[in-house]
Write a structure and sequence with these properties.
This protein is α/β, with parallel strands linked by helices. 37% of the residues lie in helices and 19% in strands. The strands form two sheets. Strands 2-1-3-5-6-4 form a six-stranded mixed beta sheet. Strands 9-8-7-10-11-12 form a six-stranded parallel beta sheet, with helices on both faces. Helix 6 links the parallel strand 8 and strand 9.
Length: 283
């Protein structure tokens, strides 16, 4: 993916991050290209935060877009000409597009991807939600919930003093927000939605409680699966979404942006992601 290649340009895209070996993006994007009849290439590159500027500068005219995972979502905003409103609000971009005129733009498809994942289940509006976690995914979740007309959110974090940035975002979004730590969760309940944005296993001791706080639970973990939260939700009949739902929906938006083709082949991309995960399971 460097300058100096001769002959017709083969369009290329890639996912960057560190670590990156776990990424399902190559499987999903390659499946999309195959379904769309595009002779494009999609690769994965290990790129640390302090390496992103040099990597982007080395790219040639054959590059159309980059998918960005941690820890690159914030620093990417410094390397583009324009930033979409969602990425600017969240302070994080997971997509970089390269235009024919040499300009670059940054976008966030995590937020609309989460909204679309809910919408696929027929969930488009809600009044209240509980969000577990205080990181970047929680920030994207707040923005997604606001676009679904949610007005009241409780955020559960281990250390409430570290939720200041999230509270600032919630205020900017116009959300009525309260913060609780895990010693207070027994007093939480009666929400429309529950979204856990923490890694699988992080809330195992409280899985039964979180499975009961809302009729719909979105656990952003997807591997290993099922989590204890998923098991608890299934046991009592709570509707359950997982991280693969989010991952596929944000990736379809990336494919549409990068290729200019819409709609992206959601079913083919989901099947490819599931097949990749199954291949990773120990024999």
């Amino acid at each position: 993916m460097v300058q100096g290649q001769q002959g017709p340009l083969l369009m290329r895209c890639a996912v960057l991050g560190s670590p990156i070996a776990h990424s399902l993006s190559p499987a999903m994007h390659r499946a999309a290209y195959a379904a769309l009849g595009l002779d494009w290439r999609y690769d994965a590159f290990e790129v640390a935060e302090d390496e992103l500027r040099g990597f982007v500068a080395s790219l040639g005219d054959d590059v159309r877009g980059l998918s960005l995972t941690m820890p690159l979502k914030r620093v990417a905003l410094e390397l583009v000409d324009t930033v979409d409103p969602v990425a600017e609000l969240i302070g994080a971009a997971n997509t970089m597009l390269f235009e024919a005129d040499g300009s670059r733009s940054a976008h966030n498809t995590d937020v609309p991807g989460l909204v679309n994942a809910f919408a696929e289940r027929g969930i488009t509006v809600a009044d209240s939600a509980l969000v577990v976690g205080g990181g970047a995914t929680a920030a994207s979740t707040l923005a997604a919930l606001r676009s679904m007309k949610v007005s009241e959110v409780t955020v559960v974090v281990r250390d409430p003093s570290r939720a200041e940035r999230l509270l600032d975002l919630a205020a900017e979004l116009g959300l009525r927000t309260s913060v609780a730590d895990f010693s207070q969760i027994e007093r939480t309940g009666g929400f429309d939605l529950c979204v856990s944005t923490v890694p699988g296993g992080a809330i195992d001791p409280w899985a039964d409680h979180f499975a009961n706080v809302a009729p719909v639970v979105f656990d952003v973990a997807y591997h290993p699966w099922p989590t204890q939260l998923a098991i608890a939700a299934h046991r009592i009949g709570t509707e359950l979404l997982n991280g693969l739902d989010l991952l596929v929906h944000q990736a379809t938006l990336q494919v549409e942006m990068m290729t200019g083709r819409s709609p992206a082949p959601l079913a083919a991309m989901r099947a490819a992601a599931r097949e990749e995960l199954n291949d990773r399971e120990p024999a």
